[in-house]
Write a sequence for this structure.
């Protein structure tokens, strides 16, 4: 590509526009939960969260969430810089309403799963995961 005056001006204007864009602010757990639930009350019930009690490596912590009547399930890691980890959506014809994945945890913290049920109510489950340093149990 030949650098012409027109190309130089376009690159300069583009750089100014990109630099002027606001960065996405970090979401707090309370804001993420309020956005997901719309401010509705959260109970307990039809949701299970399976996570290890101790994780030797915080980079790959296996978790599983399941609910018989969930339409959506949101997973949050409350101690991470960006708490929302994943949101799973299930259609009417879903054979099972369960999901498993591996998440990254910044350290020992609570992992919370909130499910929106078919009737519009919300339930949650939580689990504390202790992340060891170097797999030494400390």
């Amino acid at each position: 590509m030949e650098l012409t005056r027109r190309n130089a001006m376009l690159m300069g204007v583009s750089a100014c526009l990109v630099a002027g864009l606001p960065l996405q602010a970090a979401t707090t757990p309370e804001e993420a939960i309020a956005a997901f639930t719309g401010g509705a009350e959260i109970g307990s019930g039809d949701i299970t969260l399976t996570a290890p009690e101790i994780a030797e490596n915080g980079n790959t912590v296996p978790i599983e969430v399941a609910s018989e009547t969930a339409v959506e399930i949101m997973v949050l890691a409350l101690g991470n810089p960006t708490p929302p980890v994943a949101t799973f959506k299930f259609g009417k014809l879903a054979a099972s309403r369960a999901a498993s994945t591996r998440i990254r945890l910044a350290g020992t913290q609570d992992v919370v799963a909130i499910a929106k049920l078919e009737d519009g109510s919300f339930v949650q489950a939580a689990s504390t995961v202790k992340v060891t340093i170097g797999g030494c149990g400390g």
In short: Helices lie at 5-20, 29-37.
